[in-house]
Write a structure and sequence with these properties.
This protein has 162 residues and is α+β, with helices and mostly antiparallel strands. Helix content is 41%, strand content 20%.
């Protein structure tokens, strides 16, 4: 009887050790996206499960550096602090779509995500509106994407897998 209790206790201890080690935090920098945000954006488009129609429309897309001149029209505010930013969207289109990548200070990720959410305008396009918006982060890189549901979720999935 005592041997069975000891075996159960040992098994329980091993299970607890296993669970605790599996639940440990990520290694520092383990979820950081390295490299130029323009290259990351290209990689997201390459790997996203996007519709054929959307891919055909991408011929009119442009990805460029986010600058002070266009912050308000893209982010809805000029109060967001970031170290690097790119935006991708159609030059001229009847499609409501915008994808932004921002690199921010690690301790500002949650603040910037909230600022993006608070200032987003799904109706900023003439005659069309985005169906949905997602704001996600990996390490110190934030993805903000607005558009049709399928496109937004495809870009989100590509971002999480990148």
């Amino acid at each position: 009887m005592k041997t069975t209790k000891k075996m159960r206790l040992v098994t329980l201890c091993i299970a607890i050790i296993f669970v605790c080690s599996a639940c440990g935090g990520k290694k520092e920098g383990g979820d950081q996206l390295e490299g130029n945000l323009g290259d990351i954006m290209s990689g997201l488009y390459e790997n996203a499960d996007l519709s054929e129609d959307f891919r055909e429309g991408m011929a009119s897309f442009e990805t460029y550096e986010l600058t002070e001149d266009i912050e308000i029209s893209i982010l809805g505010t000029d109060e967001i602090e970031y170290t690097e930013g790119v935006v991708s969207m159609p030059r001229m289109s009847s499609v409501a779509y915008q994808c932004v990548l921002l690199r921010v200070d690690e301790d500002q990720v949650d603040t910037v995500k909230q600022q993006l959410k608070d200032n987003a305008d799904l109706n900023k396009w003439v005659c069309v509106s985005a169906e949905t918006m997602l704001i996600e982060s990996r390490g110190n890189v934030i993805l903000s994407v607005m558009g049709e549901n399928d496109t937004v979720y495809a870009m989100s999935e590509a971002f999480q897998k990148y």
